[in-house]
Amino acid sequence: MIYPSVLFLLIAGQADGTTEIDGTGLTLPTYMMVSMASFGALTAVLMGNSERIAKERESGWVRQLRLTTLPGRGYVLAKTAGAAVVSLPSILIVSVVAAAVKAGPSGELAVARPHRRDLGGQPGLRRARRGHRLSRRR
After folding, report:
1. Under DSSP, is residue 112 helix (H, G, I), strand (E, B) or coil?
2. Alpha-carbon separation of residue 48 from 40, 63, 79, 83 (angstroms)
């Protein structure tokens, strides 16, 4: 849970918060925050949940569960819920660390504004949003 936060601090802790990464419209700290939160969540789920399922299968626990009234979807739902609970702290810790590091002197966070290209700056997207049909021409 702490490893993604430490990586965020090492990579983006001293980075300039105004320079954008080419082609993304995101600053390095924002990009790394999302990357490290995703990394932490995936690591928590894959390393914890899949290993646990394999050990349960090896020990015969899954076979024992088939003898009970628990349906297969209940087992999968419980494992999915457990994985979500395990991955949430990692996401929250990275977000809190990123907010603490990038808070301004007044304590307010800088909010990134979306770029024109993100708002449908291409003419085709603007027409499509207004309800034009692109497939039929008159």
Report:
1. coil
2. 12, 21, 11, 8
Whether 86 and 44 have beta carbons less than 8 Å apart is answered as yes
Residue 20 vs residues 11, 14, 30, 79, 95: alpha-carbon distances, Å: 15, 15, 10, 39, 19
Q: 59-70: per-residue pLDDT in tens?
A: 988 888 888 888
Residues in the chain: 138
- Enumerate residues 6+ apart whose C-beta is below 8 A from 79: 49, 53
* Helix (H) or strand (E) run with residue 67 in it: none
On the 0-12 / 13-18 / 19+ scale of CB atoms within 10 A, 5 is buried
Q: The tokens 């082609």 sit on which residue?
A: 23
Give the residues across from 109 on adjacent strands. 103
As a dihedral over the C-alpha atoms of residue 89, residue 45, residue 24, residue 114, rounded to 10 degrees, the angle is: -40
Task: Read off the pLDDT of residues 54-99 as tens digits, 9 standing for 90 and up.
Answer: 888 899 888 888 888 888 888 888 888 888 888 888 889 888 888 8
